[in-house]
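Listing S7. Sequence submitted for prediction.
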Amino acid sequence: MAIPSEIAKELTLDLTDIPRDRRKQAKEEVGEFVVGEILRYVSSGNSPVSGRGKFQRLQSGYADKEKGGLRTANLELDGDMLDALQARNTVDGIKVGIFKSSQVPKADGHNDFSGESKLPTRRFIPDGGEGFKRSINSGVKQILEQYKEVEKPQSQLPSALALGQAAVTSESTLDDVLSPFLTGLFDE
């Protein structure tokens, strides 16, 4: 199998209760969150992919030569690959991954989507049926909750006026009309 053109995962988001004019912004915030969480996990040598744990430590010779002795595999050598990590809005959600062609081979080397990598697998983008860790999914849900349309509580003004209007006749005075409304306001 050849190296794919991108190393990415598409996340379908439930946007049904989010007003259309807020969906783009919701997707962008989710994308920023997911990218941030991937970087946070990876910086400590952990996979953000569900079912995967700590990355295999670097060999001491390589760590001494390239990383000043640091054996934590944080996928940061020059920083180019993780700098290319981004989220893009799609019709139904977001796609997060490495899209820059010069960085895709590096990302495949760690994620091994092609099945051809000789490096230890250090998956930071879910493949196929995989997903992100529960904490990332919970964060995504919390963000989407903030964008959902909240039912506006019914104003007391219309209900109070409705009471007042029910009592209005051609014989009514201003006091007759306003009294139920004012009483309702001051009783609360």
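Caption to Listing S7: primary sequence and predicted structure tokens for the chain studied. Helices lie at 20-43, 60-66, 80-83, 104-111, 134-147, 156-166, 174-187. The first helix runs from residue 20 to 43.
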